[in-house]
Amino acid sequence: MKGMKMLDFSIHRRILGLYERMTRRYRQDACLVKEFLHYLLSTRSLGKFNRVMARSLHIHPNVIDFWLIAVYCEFDMRGSMQASRNILLQGIRRNPDVPEFYFEYLKFELRVLKKLYTRKKLLETKQDVEVIDELQPKAEEEKINGSVPSLIYASSSKSITKLFRLNVDLHLRIKNLVQEYSKIIDTTQLMKEIEEHIDGVLYIERKADMMRHLLSNAEDIDQIQDKVSCFIQKTLPDLESFEVLLPKSKFDAAYEYYLEF
């Protein structure tokens, strides 16, 4: 048994050496580096992982996958929420014009709330309400009701207003993300802010993109009519949004339905 452990360790050292030489020679190959990082995580070689990760973030600061791997290590393996948060904030500071970092940051905070919610429910099944009130500070109660993601979205909007204000894909992805977590977290205020931006900005200044999004999953006449009706309730059609509908004009009923407006 001891011999087998020595053999496994020898193989492990050999693999580490091969990965180390390959990643240093082909340091611009992000896929190779990610494969090395995944191997280090799978073998729980966290000391080596930290060194390789630091080098990877220095060489590939704009590749979000490396930041997410680092977050996974801190949050899922080490259980450190604050370290994970700091990593994402550092990623935003180094990539302030990349919307994907803002999306992942909001997603992370929602995951944190989900974890707090699950922990709170477990405590409620084992302890009295009075004990829970002592263990759970008021700040966590605010997080559980969804105020923190709302504040994050509001603060991020300062950057989004300048850089991503008209990014339809970003805001719709955020809306879908929040809807996924709405079953366990009170996201009423956050959803209200997102919908206000979509209705008050995107439906006014990005009509064609919103029409394209609505029609993306429409397959028959009835669905197209429903989507077009929804669009018209939100805003007035323009020529550009009309051109988006033209490829769908083989559905004569929907085409005529749109022309009525």
Structural class, judged by helices and strands? mainly alpha
The total of beta strands comes to: 0
- The helix fraction, in percent, is over 70%
> Globular, elongated, flat, extended or rod-shaped: what is the shape?
elongated
Radius of gyration: 24 Å
How would you spell out the order of helices and strands? HHHHHHHHHHHHHHH
Q: Biggest sheet: strands, sense, closure?
A: none
> For the terminal residues, how far apart are their CA atoms?
79 Å
Question: Which stretches of 5+ consecutive residues score pLDDT under 50?
Answer: 134-143
Portion in beta strands? under 5%
| Number of distinct helices | 15
Multimerization status: single chain
Summarize model confidence as the mean pLDDT: 80
Task: Sum this structure up briefly.
This protein is mainly α and 261 residues long. It has 15 helices and no strands.
What are the defining features of this structure?
single chain; 261 residues; mainly alpha; 15 helices
How would you characterize this protein structure?
The chain is mainly alpha-helical and 261 residues long. It has 15 helices and no strands. Helix 2 packs antiparallel against helix 3 (46-59) and helix 10 packs antiparallel against helix 11 (188-205).
